[in-house]
Amino acid sequence: MTKNTGPQVRKPSVLDNFKPLLIDVAVPLGSYYVFKDALGMSTFAALAWSSVVPAMRTVWALVKERKTNGLAAIILAANLVSLLLTFVTGDPRLMLAKDSGVSSTVAIGILVSVRLGKPMMTAGMKPFLIKGDTAKEAAWQRLASGAAADSAAFRRKENAFSVVWGTVLLAECIARFVGAYTVPVDTMVWLGSVFMIGAIAIGFVVSGGLAVEPMERMLKAEAEAEAVAETEAGQAEQPAMSVAA
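Structure (tokenized):
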């Protein structure tokens, strides 16, 4: 007979792992450009409609989860600031420079979150590293709480991941702003997208080597060490139980 071990827990897919970042960052940013460039909406209308998701996420977090959704709140704030700036019209270079506002606000928010000890990018990285493994989930809790030997190194790498993304996004914002006032307008229209794609590529490569891979190794080692400790504890209990019997 096959022993019934209860319902199988579905391991999260790649989409599940990146869902927090997709909802809080990619959807608002992507929808803005879709509304503005693909659908031909005005800048004001595009910003207004792209603010719907972060606004709903922020309210939902406050009402249901009793906490603030950091990334969603930052995106919403950046959009609101950009909405105010759209009233300044007539300068195409100013409009191009304004597009860097969202990236800069997110970047600064990420860097500030590291300073406060609550790195924002962890929300997207943690599910990717754990992959639904309960042993790795427990290992993460021990490493993050300071209960494991490698806790200090683990926290440094966790912070480094957010620092990399905050720095990359801030550098992309600066490059876009400088380009808006130095590069021909027609060129900067498409070059801005190149800056963004390049920044994302650099972010993945640098954060992967600097933080993700070392954290993955630490999680694996911690989970394996805990499994060995549990096995040894179980073996030690067996003779004691035999003597008591």
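The chain has a mean pLDDT of 76. Residues 185-244 form the longest helix (60 residues).
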